[in-house]
Design a protein that fits this description.
The protein has 310 residues and is an alpha+beta fold. 26% of the residues lie in helices and 26% in strands. It contains 9 helices and 15 strands. 44% of the residues are buried.
Length: 310
């Protein structure tokens, strides 16, 4: 349990957070505003909160940089600048979500990159969660930055007592020997196929464990799903990659293989979480990645907000 910071601590953290963002060329000072908001326990890499009777923690599992031309090919430099986005490189964080329902201990998208796949385990231990206590792992889709931490570099299963959940159509797509996406297929074969016996493959919208539902949102991949918890918590997966896409829903990354489906699924997700007034955790949003999607004057907007303190 973290010691609650004083007002001076908050002011100092806000200043440092905004400085860090400036050095990271990510001009929008969302991190500083969220960190200073009432109700967040901010630990630089994790944010813990309670909502709808669930204990949750947003955990930073890694990150890398992306080119705006790849991520937002439809966006002009002027439009990027309006959202505080650098026109040469955009930081792309990877956030996993831990959820304790009281009955189940869940990790959603145990991600990472090849050189730091163990980082998530360290983040879990920092909040006193033993990886062996995890009984449920939910993978929004089978791109390796969303499941890299399922196994170690030596092939050891990091969550040995868990059942793993993935859409069946997603599994079938990546398991096919005829898959054209060679790199993702290779990672899937190396990391997930060996633990096939631990998987439960679901079909469409379903309740995975009590109080946790999967919503099918294809396009980014064939069986992509978002995850909805309690009455009003949601996890984006890659249905939305960055806050700017809440406003500019038509901004579609080059690596989205089925753009029309992406836009349809994104609109479906945004409307649902706005109606539910859900606290949204964005997988690749800037840390700490928590906030709300709310109606604006001409559509929707991203609003950083503060969960309830633990």
């Amino acid at each position: 349990m973290y010691k609650l910071p004083t007002q001076i601590d908050w002011q100092r953290r806000k200043l440092l957070a905004n400085m860090a963002l400036s050095f990271a060329v990510f001009g929008l000072p969302i991190f500083g505003r969220i960190a200073a908001a009432e109700g967040i326990v901010e630990a630089w890499r994790s944010v813990q909160f309670k909502k709808d009777g669930l204990r949750c923690a947003v955990l930073k599992a890694g990150g890398f940089a992306m080119s705006p031309a790849t991520l937002f090919p439809q966006a002009s430099e002027e439009a990027l600048s309006k959202h505080g986005l650098n026109t040469e490189t955009i930081p792309f964080d990877i956030h996993s979500l831990f959820v304790d329902t009281g009955k189940n201990k869940i990790v959603i998208d145990p991600g990472g990159t090849g050189d730091n796949s163990g980082r998530l385990l360290g983040e879990l231990r920092k909040i006193d969660i033993d990886p062996e206590s995890i009984d449920t792992v939910i993978i929004s889709h089978a791109h390796c930055d969303h499941y890299q931490a399922c196994t170690s570099e030596k092939g050891v299963v990091n969550f040995p007592n868990a059942r793993y959940y993935l859409q069946k159509r997603e599994w079938d797509y990546w398991a096919s020997a005829e898959n054209a996406e060679e790199n993702h297929h290779k990672q899937f074969s190396n990391l997930l196929l060996p633990i096939k016996e631990q998987f439960e493959l679901v079909d469409g919208e379903t309740e995975i464990v009590p109080g946790v539902q999967a919503l099918l949102t294809p396009g980014h991949s064939p069986g992509h799903m978002t995850v909805h918890m309690g009455k009003s918590i949601a996890y984006t997966g890659d249905a939305i990659l960055q806050p700017a896409q809440v406003v500019h829903q038509a901004w579609c990354a080059e690596f989205n293989r089925w753009p029309a489906q992406v836009l349809s699924s994104r609109a479906k997700f945004i409307k649902r979480v706005a109606l539910d007034k859900a606290l949204v955790v964005g997988t690749h949003f800037p840390s700490p990645a928590a906030g709300f999607i709310v109606p604006g004057s001409s559509g929707f907007r991203w609003a950083a907000s503060s969960p309830t303190i633990i």
